Amino acid sequence: MDAHTHSAVIAVASVVADAASQLGVPVADITVDYLEARDWNDSCLGLPNGNDACADVVTPGYLVVLRNGFRYRTDRQGNVRREPEPVDTEVRVYFKQAGGLGGWVSEYVADTSTLAAADVQQLRQFIDESDFFHLPEEVGNGTPLADGYRFTVFLAVGRRNHTVQTYEGVGPPESPPLWELITWLQQRAPAPHPRLDA
Question: In Å, how far are 54, 126, 158 from 117, measured between CA atoms?
Fold first, then answer.
């Protein structure tokens, strides 16, 4: 048995391929944080699906934990099952706009406990339409205005979170749905004001 056919390598390769497919990202973007040999209590790795016929036999394999929090169970042949994620659907948002002629600033912070149900639904729609969690950290908006505002948007759903920055510019935005989200957030944020530490 060489390094390429070791059961741990086979297991990790299967997990990474499955996670990349689930998230719609390249395999190279998946990071393994933890690997541990485990003996599962049945052939379904303790995670039966639907009408699975699970043999009541000890099945050697591995527990694989990814950087994004996904937890997988595998056998030594590379069959994988992802553990259910804990129910954590809290939506959190942080929005900041800074700039303008006076270098003014405005911030808006909210989460599921302070947002109306309709606003939570709208945020989820913005996340889906903009594919927010897959946007680059810096999104263009044409040529930047010299005295325009810069925007920072942080969104989280459960343990998944991402931050995107963009700016007021002249030209078509690279992500029109992101710009719609920013406009929506501006309507809820306080009016920009001078920096207190200026």
Answer: 41, 14, 16
Give the phi and the psi of residue 184 in degrees, each rounded to 5.
-65, -40
For the beta sheet containing 104-111, the strands, ordered from the edge strand earlier in sequence to the opposite edge, are 104-111, 91-99, 149-157, 160-167
**Tell me, what amino acid is at 51?**
N
Q: For 36-82, how does the pLDDT look when each residue is reduced to its tens digit (9 = 90+)?
A: 999 999 999 998 887 788 899 999 999 999 887 789 999 999 999 99
Q: Is the pTM of this model over 0.85?
A: no
**DSSP reduced 3-state for 174:** coil
Task: Please report how many Cα atoms fall inside a 13 Å half-sphere around the Cα of residue 8, on the Cβ side.
Answer: 10
Cβ-contact 91, 154 below 8 angstroms:
no
Q: What's the CA gap between 48 and 84, in Å, rounded?
A: 11
